[in-house]
Amino acid sequence: MPPPNASQRGDSAADRRKITTQSLRRMKERKEPIAALTAYDHLMAQLVDKAGVDVILVGDSVAMVVQGRETTVTVTMEQMLYHATIVSSGVERALLVGDLPFMSYQVNPDEALRNSGRMVKEAGMEAVKVEGGEPICATVRRIVDVGIPVMGHLGLTPQSIHKFGTYQVRATTPDEAEEVRRDARALQDAGAFAIVLEKIPAQLAESISKELSIPVIGIGAGAGCDGQILVTHDMLGLYNRFHPRFVRRYAELAGQMHEAFRHYTQDVKARAFPSTGESY
Fold this sequence. Notes:
By secondary structure, the protein is an alpha/beta fold. The protein folds into two domains: 244 residues, Alpha-Beta Barrel (TIM Barrel); 28 residues. Helix content is 40%, strand content 13%. An eight-stranded parallel beta barrel has the order 1-2-3-4-5-6-7-8, surrounded by seven helices. The radius of gyration is 20 Å and the shape is globular.
């Protein structure tokens, strides 16, 4: 399916208005779907922002799609701050959310608060995202209490991959489904402004979305959520290590880039580049 016409968004004054956490809540209330994508560098952030995306997440997925790691758990706080800083300089409209990486918020609420503050003060993020439910709600409350918005993340939580041992769908049993539902309520009560539900059954995700007053953004969680998020490198066909069924490829840039690099190399080897017109 081809991507929507970019000219359909970003033309009116309303479309250019800065997105805030309150904007997302109003979008949920009027049943306007929320579009979210990841970005890790200035140029990509500019392109995503100008396309009219509502939320840009500087995700710890940078560990896999940029750094070439096997999981997200290896990325450090300093690395996340670097990527968040260069992303924030390229964004005018979208709400900026920075992932807190593994072990940057789990040790204690004070450390979590310090790292959240760095995301906002040093890197220009407008909110942070954490993984987990009831066990981290005291931490969420601590961060929110000082004025930093927090986005939750439930279902398949990649920072816990060594605990799960697999990237398979979560919450397929009644007990785990009820746990996700309970965690979602707890995060809302703790002050989270939104929740990401990853790779859980669509019916459960839709039910949770209807139950909560805060926006629920899905990834591999069906069409019943209040919005959707994808990893930009996945939807552009840049990251080819695996292709989850929930990722719609809007382009196949890896193949196009490979051909461009190969063609350039052939031209150089054949002394066909640069031409006289490309020389001084």
